[in-house]
Amino acid sequence: MSQDNNTNTTNTTGHVWDNDLQELDNPLPRWWIWGFYITFVFTIVYWLFYPAWPIGDNYTKGVPGLNSITYTATQPNGEQVEKTTHWNMRSKFMVEMNELQEAQKKWFDKVAAMPFEDVQKDAELMQFVNSVGKTMFTDNCAPCHQQGAQGKIGFSPNLADDHWQYGGTYQNIEETIVAGRNGYMPPFKEVLQDEQITQLANYVLEMSGEPHDAEASKAGAALFRSETAACYYCHGENAQGKIQMGSANLTDKIWLWADIPGSKTDAAKLAEVKRVITGGLNRGVMPAWSGRLSPAQIKLLTVYVHDSLGGGK
Amino acid sequence: MKHDKIERNLGILAILTMLAISAGGMVEIVPLFFIKETVEKVEGVRPYTPLELRGRDIYIREGCYLCHSQMIRPFRDEALRYGHYSLAAESKYDHPFQWGSKRTGPDLARVGNKYSNEWQTQHLIAPRSLVPQSVMPNYPWLIKNALDYSDIQKRMLALRTTGVPYSNSQAEYERNVTEFGADVAKQLHIPDAEKNLIGQEQLNNYDGKADQVTEMDALVSYLQVLGTMVDFKKYADDEFVKYR
């Protein structure tokens, strides 16, 4: 190793390796030292602007008025109050939310003031509904009803078709979102014989135009309206369901709990319907969203489900 | 130069380094135990019931915290997606807290009551059956495994030593009645833990399997209580600003 590399060196650590390798021991560069001192000055300025030093059970909050934040707070009763605090993350968050509310207020107020039917007539407003509604749907509804609102057989109803178990008017949909739903059908395994359940299942298949045993179906039709099985209590005399209780329309080709489209053979279809009648249903729980979304958000989401997903009725 | 002495003497260097770090710790951590406003005054926060507690233990066992945080930060985007930002008070009975530091999956701090029990159960067995784009692993054994709650009292006693107000005597029970009300206080009574655990499962049957207390029951009961204890509608939207 050449001695040239060491010509500027005033100090070495005194260690020598391999006879000629030495470790330099120069002072730190001047710019670095000054940078280090400037950080001290920076902290002092920081203490003046931001919460910093703990003192007993409290802490310094910066020089009053030097770096304060003003925001608008909403009380539980809806009253709005303007407040000023020292700088902190939570008041900064309030400002962020104020700005958001300010930007969206025009549109949300418009939706809130309008009857449901009129929203879709305003094309510009519908752009807002579609954009906000899609985000809300993805986050809150899609986990069950799926991204395209197509639902899932055996789990959640399709929201994109014209069939509505609990009613498809704006008011029905809003009520469903606000309060949630609980699906229930009693099990019939204790009440009916296996043969009777087979007859009912054949009748249900016949009403939907599926392959069935005509004779069993005829007996099922009588049983359906008898006091023994009393299916008509919930599903109605005409078996078209009642939206007040969310009972299924058995005369259409839409299936939610019995997986008929997924059943390959006639026997499998019969078994699926029998499974539902035998065991009943204690499922189809939709949570209530009134605690999570504001009334204005729920109204907007209602319009989105009714008009944008193409499921209104 | 004077720092030569420090740099060339390993013992002194180690001691001074430790002193410097402790000073930082003292200034940054210790005051949080004394500053009154660290933990917000808020109604509704209670320790977990025995079943929820076992659910939390399974949450930890399965490593849920590796992909899911339980900490909604005070940012607009998080508030819009997850709800009100998390309060220190909401995890004051969590030992260890489950804030997490990684979000491969969504934050779970307010997932309670967002989806039905059936959804949670199905989603834990096979996440992609409900969320096709999910990368979450399947946890099918949770519904097959019977829940081992033989040591539930010991688990509650252990937490009691860290300051969680589970009651082990009549006096402690009465203190809990005053603080949480009778319904909650009953759930926090250690001698009744097994009875309460089975009772909560039978009442709610989270996993839809009526005949057995499974690990799924415990985990879903825990998920369904996350973030639901505080009713934020009772407070102004800036109520918790004053604590910072």
From TrEMBL, chain A:
Instruction: Describe the location of the Cytochrome c domain by residue ranges.
Output: 128-208, 215-309
Q: Subcellular localization, per the record?
A: Cell inner membrane
* TM stretches of this protein: 31-49
A single BP term in Gene Ontology? oxidative phosphorylation
Q: How is the co-factor bound, per the entry?
A: Binds 2 heme C groups per subunit.
Which InterPro entries does the entry link to? CcoP_N, CcoP_N_sf, Cyt_c-like_dom, Cyt_c-like_dom_sf, Cyt_C_IC, Cyt_c_oxidase_cbb3_su3, Cytochrome_c_Oxidase_Subunit
Q: Which cofactor does it need?
A: heme c
Gene this chain is encoded by: ccoP
Question: Tell me, what does this protein do in biology?
Answer: C-type cytochrome. Part of the cbb3-type cytochrome c oxidase complex.
What is the protein name stated in its UniProt record?
Answer: Cbb3-type cytochrome c oxidase subunit
What is one cellular component GO term in this UniProt entry? plasma membrane
What organism is the protein native to? Pseudomethylobacillus aquaticus
Protein's pathway: Energy metabolism; oxidative phosphorylation
Keyword Heme attributed: yes
Q: Which family does it belong to?
A: Belongs to the CcoP / FixP family.
Q: Which UniProt keywords apply?
A: Cell inner membrane, Cell membrane, Electron transport, Heme, Hydrogen ion transport, Ion transport, Iron, Membrane, Metal-binding, Oxidoreductase, Repeat, Respiratory chain, Transmembrane, Transmembrane helix, Transport
Residues involved in heme c 2 binding: 185, 231, 234-235
TrEMBL record, chain B:
Enzyme Commission identifier(s)? 1.9.3.1
In terms of Pfam families, this protein maps to:
FixO
Q: Does the keyword Transferase apply?
A: no
Gene3D superfamilies attached to this UniProt entry:
6.10.250.2250, Cytochrome c-like domain (1.10.760.10)
Membrane-crossing segments per the record: 12-34
SUPFAM superfamilies on file: Cytochrome c
Q: Does the keyword Membrane apply?
A: yes
Please state what the protein is called. Answer: Cytochrome-c oxidase, cbb3-type subunit II
Native source organism of the sequence? Pseudomethylobacillus aquaticus
Give the taxonomic lineage as stored in the record: Bacteria, Pseudomonadati, Pseudomonadota, Betaproteobacteria, Nitrosomonadales
